[in-house]
Automatic annotation (TrEMBL):
Residues 1-26 form the signal peptide. Residues 29-139 form the CBM2 domain. Belongs to the glycosyl hydrolase 43 family. This is CBM2 domain-containing protein. The lineage of its organism: Bacteria, Bacillati, Actinomycetota, Actinomycetes, Micromonosporales. Residues 145-170 are annotated as: Disordered. It comes from the Bacteria. Keywords: Glycosidase, Hydrolase, Signal. InterPro entries: CBD2 (IPR001919), CBM2/CBM3_carb-bd_dom_sf (IPR008965), CBM2_carb-bd_dom_sf (IPR012291), Glyco_hydro_43 (IPR006710), Glyco_hydro_beta-prop_sf (IPR023296). It comes from Plantactinospora mayteni. The keyword Signal applies.
Length: 481
């Protein structure tokens, strides 16, 4: 969509309650503000040794790499650890992340464990916990330990336990997201608002938050040189075989709204990250007389169609037939016009059309009202048979299907996409939103995802947008790393 327009047999337990130390937006261990809560447990102990566990929760900025330190006060010495790389110098223990748990979002938790020696007399809790060098504050309850169990006969686990939850956002500056799961990875592309096309990937959904963006393509053609927004990529059959087709909106530089058009790249093979080459400008063959935005792809009854939005005094949704993934075979036809009051807040807008298909039914979920308002929201069309090019073949829902939640602090949720869980049993929605009612139509909108369900009548139930930082179960079938 447009960024501008008019726009973790217990013998003893010791708990360390640790407070927050600041919070600003950052993603690297070197620059992120730290804050943590820690729960320390002695799981079992025997003459000369014990097993300890530390549950660390990040209360500061998202981290891409972390180090937790503490000090033992009674000569305890770590001999073996898991889920972190341990070292000890004198009384101080250092636990550094492993590759699979380096990313630690705000509110996220990781559990680490170790075997250590003790003096068979006292085994008090550690002191001076610190995350990435920043001291965590709070009270420590010491404990006097008595040997209660025999030494363990097997080594503790050394493989990564699967993550069970993640938190939003998936990308702090990620408007107009498109996300898919393919061959063991999640892939995410968002608006860049410049002349680059980028994509990030991760084995886990939550890992997208700290994944690096990879440059896929640089725009250079005069009529599509910059201001790239609303990307999405589809694996389609074409004359050259099965390829990824990357659709996007771009125009002349400096920014000229009137020149914004839909364009498409083609991959060299089956990797969503390319390489890509420019394929075509997806212009209307007979009415290239206004801007066209927000490409979407519909496959229905063996035919291929382009969805989008354009300007004709208001901003309706259009559909155009395609003969292949990059060639129009007819002019645009109006599919939906913004007429309901909830579609016209700040401007009469139907845009960002995305297709959802299940059990033989086809839906188009679109964004309504102006993107600069907190009332940007999702509406839905339902296909009722007939020629998909005719608006009469589609029925518009009279009420929005996904909208702002003041209680959850989510405003302007829209420009969505859909993806399935790794095992194919769950349906998920990805979208962007603001965290304040005053948020605008700009790069500060963040990428978020959540699972949705289906009503008894076969229609989707998207529920309510969840608050940032809420612990959500990971998609079904997601690997450990």
């Amino acid at each position: 969509m447009r960024l501008t327009r008019l726009r973790s047999v217990i013998a003893a337990v010791a708990v360390c309650a640790v407070g927050s130390v600041g919070a600003v937006t950052a993603v690297t261990a070197a620059s992120a503000a730290a804050g943590c809560s820690v729960t320390y447990r002695i799981g079992s102990q025997w003459p000369g040794g014990f097993t300890g566990t530390v549950d660390l929760r990040n209360l500061g900025d998202p981290l891409d790499g972390w180090t937790l330190t503490w000090s033992f006060t009674a000569g305890q010495q770590v001999s073996q650890g898991w889920s972190a790389v341990f070292s000890q110098s004198g009384a101080q223990v250092t636990a550094r992340n492993q590759s699979w748990n380096a990313g630690l979002g705000t509110g996220a938790q990781v559990s680490i464990g170790f075997n250590a020696s003790w003096n068979n007399s006292t085994n008090p809790a550690p002191t001076s916990f610190a995350l990435n060098g920043v001291a965590c504050t709070g009270a420590t309850t010491p404990t006097t330990a008595v040997p209660t169990t025999a030494a363990p006969t097997t080594a503790p686990p050394t493989t990564a336990p699967p993550r069970t939850t993640f938190t939003n956002p998936l990308k702090a500056r990620g408007p107009d997201p498109w996300l898919t799961y393919y061959n063991g990875y999640y892939y995410l592309a968002t608006t860049t608002w410049n002349n680059t096309i980028t994509m990030r990937r991760s084995r886990t959904l939550g890992g997208l938050a700290t994944a690096a963006d990879t440059l896929l393509f640089t725009l250079t053609r005069p009529n599509g040189a910059g201001t790239m927004w609303a990307p999405e990529f589809h694996l389609l059959d074409g004359p050259n075989g099965r390829r990824w087709y990357f659709y996007y909106t771009a125009g002349r530089e400096p920014f000229d709204l009137g020149s914004q058009r839909i364009h498409v790249l083609e991959s060299a093979g089956s990797d969503p990250m390319g390489p890509y080459t420019f394929k075509a400008d997806l212009l209307d063959p007979t009415a290239d007389n206004t801007w066209e935005l927000d490409p979407g792809i519909l496959q229905l009854n063996g035919n291929l169609y382009l969805l989008g939005t354009f300007y004709n005094g208001s901003q309706p949704m259009f559909i155009r037939p395609l003969s292949n993934p990059w060639t129009a075979s007819g002019t645009r036809r109006i599919l939906s016009t913004p007429t309901y009051g909830w579609e016209t807040v700040g401007g009469a807008v139907n845009e960002g059309a995305e297709v959802l298909q299940r059990n033989g039914r086809t839906f188009i979920v679109y964004s309504a009202s102006h993107c600069s308002t907190p009332d940007y929201k999702l509406g839905m069309l339902t296909y009722n048979g007939g020629d998909p090019l005719n608006s009469s073949s589609w029925v518009k829902s009279s009420q929005p299907v996904f909208q702002r939640s003041n209680a959850n602090g989510v405003y302007g949720p829209g420009h969505n996409g859909f993806f399935t869980s790794p095992d194919g049993t769950e349906d998920w929605i990805v979208y962007h939103a603001n965290s304040s009612a005053g948020g605008g139509c700009d790069m500060n909108r963040s990428t978020r995802a959540q699972k949705f369900t289906w009503n008894a009548d076969g229609t989707p139930n998207f529920g309510t947008p969840v608050p940032l930082g809420a612990q959500l179960a990971v998609p079904s079938g997601e690997p450990a790393a």
